[in-house]
């Protein structure tokens, strides 16, 4: 709940900003584990598997922390959006996956949706 006094508004804004930073970092770790899956070779390679599992744990932990102060629907959608768009772009760069105009357009729509959720979350 938002307070009316200036000092309490500042504290609320700082807490919201912290939650958004946590959510952004959680999304980046989601990109790490989703791309890391490709390198595990079906979890048969030890180092990439450890990296991937650590990234999953950090991503989930940070999502849980961020969702304490953000609406869960918004937090989850943004987290998935960051992960999906990041994994798609890195797939194009690292694994030479198709980079068609349509794919890039849909990634742009996803990013606009993430921004829209941030703007409308309050």
Radius of gyration: 17 Å
**Beta strand count:** 0
Low-confidence stretches: none
Q: What structural category do the secondary elements indicate?
A: mainly alpha
Distance N to C terminus: 11 Å
What is the N-to-C order of secondary-structure elements (H for helix, E for strand)? HHHH
% residues in beta strands: under 5%
Give a short account of the largest sheet. Answer: none
User: Helical residue percent?
Assistant: over 70%
- Summed over residues and divided by their number, the pLDDT gives a mean of 91
Number of helices: 4
Number of structural units classed as domains: 1
Shape: flat
Overall description:
The structure is a single chain. The chain is mainly α and 122 residues long. The chain has one domain (6-120). Helices cover 81% and strands 0% of the residues. It has helices at residues 6-40, 46-66, 72-94, 101-120. The mean pLDDT is 91.
Summarize this entry quickly.
By secondary structure, the protein is an all-alpha fold.
Feature tags:
single chain; 122 residues; mainly alpha; 4 helices
Secondary-structure blueprint:
Layout (H helix, E strand, L loop, with lengths): L5 H35 L5 H21 L5 H23 L6 H20 L2
């Amino acid at each position: 709940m938002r307070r009316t006094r200036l000092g309490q508004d500042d504290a609320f804004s700082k807490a919201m900003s912290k939650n958004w930073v946590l959510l952004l970092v959680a999304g980046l770790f989601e990109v790490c584990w989703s791309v890391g899956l490709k390198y595990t070779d079906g979890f048969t390679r030890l180092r990439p598997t450890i990296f991937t599992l650590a990234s999953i744990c950090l991503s989930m932990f940070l999502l849980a922390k961020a969702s304490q102060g953000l609406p869960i629907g918004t937090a989850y959608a943004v987290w998935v959006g960051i992960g999906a768009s990041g994994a798609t772009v890195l797939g194009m760069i690292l694994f030479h996956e198709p980079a068609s105009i349509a794919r890039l357009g849909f990634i742009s729509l996803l990013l606009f949706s993430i921004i829209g959720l941030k703007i409308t979350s309050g």
